[in-house]
Specification:
7 strands, about 350 residues, two-stranded antiparallel ribbon, 2 domains, elongated, five-stranded mixed β-sheet, Heat Shock Protein 90
């Protein structure tokens, strides 16, 4: 299935470019009695420019060649044949093909330069974000250890213990950031190896809670999983990470007094699991980007995180052949819906 999608992604620019040539040809048919054929060439050049800007040099070259053939076959007498009685049109075809190739090459180069600049700006922003996220716990740990090692400091046992707790907390945070970066690298590089085994969802959710017990504390967690819920085939460690990220996200973005609801049911050959919180919710303008790497909602400045958790969860779920989506009413909470194949 994944290979089919990849092949379709590769050929779709060429198919759409061919569609552009078809549209220009239909338009040429409508106006060919009012315009000279050489003037209609300009419309085909427009198709070449569109293909070059949108998809690059390959589709643009294909558009140029198809445009020459379509122009000759449909719009130059004798119609519906590639024969040309007027020798002048041969120069038109040759000039059009050369101009089309030049335009496609130049436009593609400009497009590549724009993409490169955008990529460089994005990399700079990501490096800045990562540097900040890594530097903050490192500075805190360094300061804490310096205070403990300072022979002149007069710290009692309680103060020393508090400093050690701070250092441990920041070390855990640093470890979490590094693990997230490694997980993102694995899930995006194609080295993720999924080994599925049947799993009972109750046991699975219980393992998530055990992993997050320090963060859950006394929070009210409501679970609704039917007794006849079939087992779901998953790679337990990876899916545990995906769901733990979602539950951790619900805990972070909702108040201690509000519940977290986890519900599961099955429809046909799919299991559907939802994780719901009653916190801030997700603004409408952010809803379409929350699964992007390093993206965080605008009101999340006071909540620590790298913006990688949801992206990692999405990659893991999709590697299982599943799907994840989000719903939200801003100010009333958010719900994440996961669909996984039962077979």
């Amino acid at each position: 299935m994944q290979k089919s999608k990849t092949l379709l992604d590769k050929i779709s620019p060429y198919l759409i470019s061919a569609g552009l040539v078809f549209i220009m040809t239909v338009f040429g048919e409508l106006v060919k009695r009012r315009l000279e054929p050489t003037n209609i060439v300009m419309f085909y050049l427009l198709a070449v420019v569109i293909a070059a800007i949108r998809w690059g040099q390959g589709p643009a070259i294909v558009t140029s060649v198809l445009s020459v053939l379509a122009f000759d076959f449909f719009l130059v007498p004798p119609y519906l044949t590639l024969n040309v009685h007027d020798f002048e049109y041969l120069f038109t075809f040759a000039a059009f093909l050369v101009v089309g190739l030049i335009v496609s090459t130049l436009t593609s180069k400009v497009r590549a330069q724009i993409i490169q600049r955008q990529t460089e700006k994005l990399h700079s922003a990501l490096l800045s974000s990562i540097s900040h996220d890594l530097k903050t716990p490192l500075v805190s740990i360094t300061g804490t250890l310096s205070a403990l090692l300072d022979s002149k400091s007069k710290l009692d046992a309680q103060q020393k213990n508090e400093l050690l707790e701070t250092a441990r907390g920041e070390s855990d945070r640093l470890n979490h950031i590094v693990n997230n970066l490694l997980d993102m690298t694995r899930t995006e590089s194609g080295v993720l190896r999924i080994s599925k085994k049947p799993c009972d969802l109750r046991d699975f959710i219980g393992a998530c809670f055990e992993q997050l017990k320090d963060k859950i504390g006394s929070r009210n967690i409501k679970i609704n999983i039917p007794k006849d819920m079939p087992e779901v085939a998953v790679d337990f460690p990876y899916m545990l990470k995906a769901f733990s990220n979602l539950i951790d996200n619900a805990l972070k973005y909702s108040s201690n007094g509000s519940p977290i609801e986890i519900e599961a049911f099955f429809i046909g050959k799919k299991a559907r699991v939802s994780v719901r919180d009653y916190g801030y919710g997700i603004p409408k303008e952010d809803l379409g980007r929350i699964f992007d790497k390093f993206y965080r909602v605008q009101r999340a400045q006071n909540i620590l995180g790298t913006g990688l958790g949801l992206s990692i969860s999405k990659n893991i779920i999709e590697a299982h052949g599943g799907h994840i989506s989000a719903e939200s009413i801003f100010g009333k909470g958010a719900k994440f819906i996961i669909e996984l194949p039962l077979e």
